[in-house]
Amino acid sequence: MIATADTPMNANEKIHAKTVITAHANADFDALAAMVAASKLYPGATLVFPGSQEKSLRNFFIQSTTYLFNFKAFKDIDPDDVELLVVVDTRQRSRIPQVRPLLDKPGLRIHLYDHHPDTDDDLKAEMSVVKDWGSTTAIIVAEMRTRGITLNAEEATLLGLGIYEDTGSFGFNSTTPHDFEAAGWLKGQGMDIEVISDLLSHELSAEQITHLGELLQNAATYDIHGVDVVITELSTDRFVPDFALLVHKLMDMENIRVVIALGRMGDRIHVVARSKHPDVSVGQICTSLGGGGHAAAASATVKDRTLAEVRDDLFALLYSHINPQIVIESLMSRPPVVIEDDRAMNEAVELMTRYGLKDVPVVASGTMRCVGIMGHQTADKALSHGLGKLGLSEYMSRKFETVESGTDLYRVMEIILGKRQRMLPVMDGETLVGVITRTDLMNMLIDEPARIPDSLLPERRRERNIASLVNSRLPQKMIDFLKVAGELGQDMGWEVYAVGGFVRDILLARPNFDLDLVVEGDAIAYARRLARQLGGRVKAHVKFKTAVVILDDQRVDVATARLEYYEYPAALPTVELSSIKMDLYRRDFTINALALRINPGRFGQLVDFFGAEQDMKNKAIRVLHSLSFVEDPTRILRAIRFERRFEFQIGGQTLRLIKNALSLDLFSKLSGTRIMHELQLIMAEENPLACLNRMQELGIMEAIHPLLKLSADRVQVLMELGKVNNWYKLLYLEPRVVPWKLYLLGLTMGIKRDQIGQVTSRLRFTTKEEREFLQLRDMIGDALMRLMSWREDKSRLSRLSAILRPIPLEGVLFLMARSRKEHIRRGISQYLTRLRDVTIDVSGTDLQEMGLAPGPAYSAILVRVLEAKIDGRAQTREDQLRLAKRLGRALSRTCKEGDGS
Hints:
By secondary structure, this protein is of the alpha/beta class. It has six domains: 19-199, Alpha-Beta Complex (inorganic pyrophosphatase (n-terminal core)); 203-323, Roll (Diaminopimelate Epimerase, Chain A, domain 1), CATH 3.10.310; 329-456, CBS-domain (Roll), CATH 3.10.580.10; 463-691, Beta Polymerase, domain 2; 708-835, cca-adding enzyme, domain 2, CATH 1.10.3090; 844-900, no CATH class. The chain has an eight-stranded mixed beta sheet. It has a six-stranded parallel beta sheet with strand order 3-2-1-4-5-6. A six-stranded mixed beta sheet has the order 7-8-9-10-12-11, sandwiched between helices. Strand 14 and strand 15 form a beta hairpin. The radius of gyration is 38 Å and the shape is elongated. This is Polynucleotide adenylyltransferase region. Residues 332-390, 396-455 form the CBS domain. Its cofactor is Mg(2+).
């Protein structure tokens, strides 16, 4: 039996192939033919077929080619044996996923044969044969002729099929004399033209005729800079085999020179493009869409985009590629209005107001080197916070794109529309020569609105559906709740979203059931309806237009979509009604500015206005605007908490804004209550010491209070506290540790008793909290002294228990971390795991039945009995009763003797 791509070998029978030949995914006849042709140049090579979506090609391959040539499935090959990889009809790494495990193999040699244009994704190869011919097969045939290789009729026909298809039976303008020469030589080798004609022009089925009719009906012709381009589309939930054949038929029937067909098939958009026009390279178009091809024929498959979004991007690509002479020199304003980086914020506001600018480029003093962009909105907000005299370099945006004057139109649209950069500096080397604003671009495009991709517009919600992630990463009970909540919103006529960290953690595959909902409507009315429906209750906050729905096992925060603004630095927010976009914009970081639609019909659609997904991919913590920390300095602590929790990195611009906020001493304006709340959250993290070290590195600990500066001793104890806390958590014992109480003991270690009040006062402890914390510190100090004299081999365990039993759990764990003596740590471990919960089997009732008069003696006797049980001297109830009687009699004698004297 011949092993084919559809006939897997025994799992233990791996093929030992030194040379592997493959082509691009979704192979066409040229790819298949080029693979077979290459096998003549590399005798004994193993061919790995990448799969095809064309029905005729798949049938031909299964019925004929597998029996003639050495095709295998990659899973049947031992990759360790492969020394040489030969790739035909592509050079792009992303287009050969079937052999991806080989691509990073050290020492792998690669040979390439291709006729497509260069791309940034091209593989590096030991040998690369690339020619601008009509087909890759023709390139390899030329090499075969040079080596004197001959073919049989079946082989010649297969290779001819590849050339005929990729040149459109020699009808494409990309056809070269070399393709004719190759076909002529193949004819001499026995190529059967009738077989090729039958394969390329077979009769259409009834279903195919229906789809062709849909393509004809939807076809529209667009004049794009003097070139007629036909764009058509179809939409179906099932895959359409031979889609490329239908496009070819359409092109022939209507005598079309350039046609691009978009087919929505299930959750993917398939793009097939054909061109006979010398000025239109559909290969470049499809490459930009993530596919590939050559000037005359190309294709792409797009995931996670709608048909409308792909269509709009297609128009933008066509306008930029067909008319490359439109460059930004014709769009930019020159000379640019600039401001130097040593000027103040109020000067920037004055300048932008005078010229009616929304943004102004910032240049290095005395030069035209662009170092930043200052936005009018940011500068105005700075003035409202009393920061007008600050240097604008503190708050200008340093993360921006620039272009050279010869850049094409699509790149400009990609930056201004796609990346939402409203002003684009135009450079000549390092010299700023002009600017293009969003208004300039829109004015130029106003006569051609079709060329603007809606998916690039900032007003358009960049949405993809992540329902599959929701269903796989949340428990069914949570999914059911979201659907109920969404259906209620639909009934009330409002959009409802899950927002913030809940959505972020779905994407990061982290458990988080702390659900926040935002309603584009009245959140309080919605919450009351939801509570009634689910049998819960509501706590409403009318001032903030929010509510909490309290169910048996869950609390859900519900908010009205709103915009918060701050009247002065570090103030609590004032609330205004607004849309979901503005509600997300008020949040701290991009990774938390996410929303998930839960209304029926749109359930699972992700709303990401600010590039959160990209920041998560880049592992970056980034604020949404440059005054974020001025408005709320506690966001600095949250930035550090998220950075360490997710092992991300605070972005450069965001880090600079943190340092600037600290230089303005904004922490002094924060209430101790808010700081303490953030500290409690940090200390509840899995690795709070990492956060505290980062705070120390940035000078935040001293900004909170100078006495909290981390010393080497404190860091060491905090490290040990982390270890003992993790150890205790793994015991699953009660009570649970209150993390902030534990770590605050470490943070305040070494602070004198008469100074500790400064810290507790800054953190706004209540009188009770301060009293309890001071008592705990005193108890720890006393216990430390008493533990110094406890010896494991000489002292009783009951004595250790007596020292530790009055101390709250956090204090005991601190003693364990603080002690450097192993026997004391071992003893404390024994106390926590065994001794702490020891109880005795006798009570005051038993003592009363013995005839002892109630009084202080009861307590003394029961303590002695407990000590005896801990030390192993009174394990049973009978032993304990006997001991209690002896102690009672001894106590009675003592009392009588005392009376007698």
